[in-house]
């Protein structure tokens, strides 16, 4: 029997040929590409990525406590240095001596400037006096606050200027009382006998550089107009020169940055004011101080 006859007679099953438009059999779950589990890294053939990552992680964990210890040590060292630098200056330091003596020195300048501002005859000179009074009174407040913060008294017994290695008797200014023979004790000066802003100690017997004498201050308080302008300018030029010597020393030898900074500002401001006052004397027809 031929093959065709066998198929026709049912001896063999018909060929299982599916129609062309029959739908494709759905892909089984097992045929899908494998996915990586969350949190795992796929290792490509021939690579050892995951082991390297684990080694790097172990190294980072080893270094972490070392870095923490180093940072903590640096912070501790910085804190110790800061405490050292923030310690208040000593009783005999340049900083404390400068703050005390310059406050007293400034107080007399404020006193003289207010006399000129009230009764002077020259508008320009009165303006200079006002600037001096405002600036130096502000600086007195700054230095007074320093002394309080350092736990130091505003004044000290004994002769001034010991922080500069001297006694303060017109040292280095070329100003020996402007020809005045009166005794120049700080406790005799008006406004310098315990008043706020520049009290003198009872034991002070020496005059700081540039300070006016009691006789000069009394004369300043009794005149007015041009005579007052000329005397004020003359006395204040000498007063500034003495203050400049003190400020220059503090700017070079003080320990605290704030002290050196204020001293440098005083040097700059008072140098400018000396030039202004010399020009004013020339304009008023008076000799240079």
From TrEMBL:
Keywords on record: Membrane, Transmembrane, Transmembrane helix
Transmembrane intervals: 60-81
Annotated segments matching region Disordered: 1-55
Chain intervals with Low complexity compositional bias: 13-23, 40-49
Domain DUF305 residue range list: 95-281
Keyword 4Fe-4S: no
Ranges of Basic and acidic residues composition bias in the record: 24-39
InterPro entries, per database record: DUF305_CopM-like, Ferritin-like
Listed Gene3D superfamilies: 1.20.1260.10
Protein name: DUF305 domain-containing protein
Organism of derivation: Frankia torreyi
């Amino acid at each position: 029997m031929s093959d065709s006859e066998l198929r026709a007679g049912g001896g063999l099953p018909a060929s299982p040929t599916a129609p062309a438009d029959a739908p494709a059999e759905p892909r089984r779950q097992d045929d899908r590409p494998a996915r990586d589990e969350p949190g795992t890294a796929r290792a490509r053939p021939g690579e050892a990525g995951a082991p390297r990552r684990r080694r790097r992680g172990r190294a980072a964990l080893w270094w972490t406590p070392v870095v923490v210890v180093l940072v903590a040590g640096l912070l501790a060292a910085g804190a110790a240095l800061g405490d050292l630098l923030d310690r208040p200056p000593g009783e005999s330091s340049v900083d404390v001596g400068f703050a005390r003596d310059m406050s007293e020195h400034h107080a007399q300048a404020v006193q003289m400037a207010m006399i000129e501002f009230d009764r002077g005859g020259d508008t320009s000179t009165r303006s200079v006096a006002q600037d001096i009074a405002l600036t130096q009174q502000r600086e007195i407040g700054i230095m007074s606050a320093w002394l309080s913060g350092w736990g130091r008294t505003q004044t000290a017994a004994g002769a001034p200027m010991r922080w500069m290695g001297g006694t303060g008797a017109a040292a280095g200014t070329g100003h020996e009382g402007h020809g005045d023979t009166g005794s120049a004790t700080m406790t005799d000066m008006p406004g310098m006998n315990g008043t706020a802003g520049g009290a003198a100690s009872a034991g002070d017997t020496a005059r700081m550089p540039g300070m006016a004498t009691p006789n000069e201050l009394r004369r300043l308080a009794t005149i007015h107009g041009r005579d007052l302008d000329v005397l004020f300018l003359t006395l204040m030029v000498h007063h500034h020169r003495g203050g400049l010597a003190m400020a220059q020393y503090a700017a070079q030898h003080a320990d605290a940055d704030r002290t050196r900074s204020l001293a440098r500002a005083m040097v700059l401001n008072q140098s400018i004011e000396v030039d202004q006052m010399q020009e004013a004397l020339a304009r008023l027809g008076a000799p240079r101080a």
